[in-house]
């Protein structure tokens, strides 16, 4: 069992956190009010995020979209990026994050949004030391043509910080296979690839690997219901970015009882599991709390929790020298921090 304090101190590498899902409640209320976006019920900061009230993923995403619609200038993006990387990042000993950015709900042109995000990344690094990069997330509920146009813009306005693309929103409303040409374009341009696969079935994981050529899977809990696909993912050491609290609250993983049993099955099967917080304030969590929740539900010790971070280092899209630097830093923390944190 680990304490909350230890969960906070364990170094973290964050591969599954959404920018629009990590806006502090007070900021969400301020930006929506200032930019004329009405959230139904006119909630205050104490009630704008009511994870217990989201009937389903769609209801959660409607709030997520309103926050995106409220981003009207470069500084709005700088501010939310900074707050995500500090309040829901460095404050929880997140050393490095690849943050999902959903440009589609905002009225701002992509290059302006990108400039603001880069400002936030720079300021957060200056103030806290956190390193971060960007994954451009495609809304699978919109058309493939729109996704292609987004990736074309990403390529046209290419910066080193944008490492790859992702695919999110409701799986049942946007199956992955039609996005293969979009992913092919990204691959040709040297962008890395991941995609959400939270509600299943396991065959979708093979679509992501074989048709979208993903090198990671976001969530992917249903993999353990198919022995062959599980074995394949073990052999290929496919990384899975799991988000215990949001998936449990959302009941997308098919449990919703706080047991996180799917994550246990994945770890026991030998899959390469990473832990993150998805949309932390929207689901009443933060990176430390997700480590704490899964660690306590499954009885993991500090060494296992550090393994989740080591898995995320292996799975991240930095180049090998940057990964080696993170590995050395984690090894040094383990040498000096482990005793203290037992
Ligand atoms: N976008 C942001 N969070 C998401 C989630 N948990 N599932 C699908 N799309 C998302
Ligand atoms: Zn997600």
Q: Which terms summarize this structure?
A:
single chain, 342 residues, TIM Barrel, 4-stranded parallel sheet, 14 helices, binds adenine, binds zinc ion, metal-binding, zinc
Helices and strands in order:
Layout: H1 4-9, E1 12-18, H2 25-34, H3 57-69, H4 74-87, E2 94-101, H5 110-128, E3 131-139, H6 144-156, E4 162-168, H7 180-188, E5 192-193, E6 196-197, H8 202-210, E7 217-219, H9 227-235, E8 239-242, H10 244-250, H11 261-269, E9 272-275, H12 287-298, H13 302-315, H14 320-337
Parallel strand pairs: 1-2, 2-3, 3-4, 4-5, 6-7, 7-8, 8-9
Bound molecules: adenine and zinc ion (ZN).
Zinc ion is lined by residues 16, 18, 168, 196, 218, 278.
**How is the biggest beta sheet arranged?**
5 strands, parallel
Order of helices and strands: HEHHHEHEHEHEEHEHEHHEHHH
Mean pLDDT equals 95
Per CATH, what is the topology?
Answer: TIM Barrel
What is the correct CATH architecture?
Alpha-Beta Barrel
Strand content: 5-15%
């Amino acid at each position: 069992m680990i304490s909350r304090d230890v969960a906070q101190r364990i170094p973290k590498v964050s591969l599954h956190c959404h920018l629009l899902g990590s806006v502090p409640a007070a900021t969400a209320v301020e930006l929506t009010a200032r930019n004329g976006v009405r959230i139904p019920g006119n909630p205050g900061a104490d009630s704008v995020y009511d994870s217990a009230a989201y009937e389903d993923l769609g209801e959660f995403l409607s709030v997520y979209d309103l926050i995106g619609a409220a981003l009207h200038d470069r500084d709005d993006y700088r501010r939310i990026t900074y707050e995500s990387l500090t309040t829901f990042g460095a404050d929880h000993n997140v050393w490095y994050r690849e943050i999902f950015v959903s440009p589609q709900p905002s009225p701002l042109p992509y290059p302006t949004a990108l400039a603001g995000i880069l400002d936030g990344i720079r300021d957060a690094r200056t103030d806290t030391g956190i390193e971060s990069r960007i994954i451009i997330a495609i809304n699978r509920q919109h058309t493939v043509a729109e996704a292609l146009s987004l990736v074309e813009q990403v390529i046209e306005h290419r910066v080193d910080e944008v490492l790859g693309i992702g695919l999110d929103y409701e799986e049942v409303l946007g199956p992955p296979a039609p996005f293969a040409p979009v992913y092919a374009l990204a691959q040709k341009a040297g962008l890395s690839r991941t995609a959400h696969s939270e509600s299943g079935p396991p065959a979708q994981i093979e679509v992501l690997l074989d048709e979208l050529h993903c090198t990671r899977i976001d969530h992917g809990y249903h993999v353990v219901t198919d022995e062959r696909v599980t074995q394949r993912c073990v052999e290929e050491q496919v990384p899975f970015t799991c988000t215990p609290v949001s998936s449990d609250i959302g009941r997308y993983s098919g449990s919703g009882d706080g047991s996180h049993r799917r994550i246990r099955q994945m770890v026991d099967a030998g899959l390469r599991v990473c832990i993150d917080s998805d949309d932390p304030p929207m689901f009443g969590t933060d990176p430390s709390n997700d480590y704490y929740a899964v660690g306590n539900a499954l009885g993991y010790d500090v060494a296992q929790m550090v393994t989740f971070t080591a898995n995320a280092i292996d799975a991240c899209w930095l180049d090998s020298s940057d990964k080696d630097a993170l590995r050395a830093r984690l090894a040094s923390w383990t040498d000096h921090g482990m005793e203290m944190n037992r």
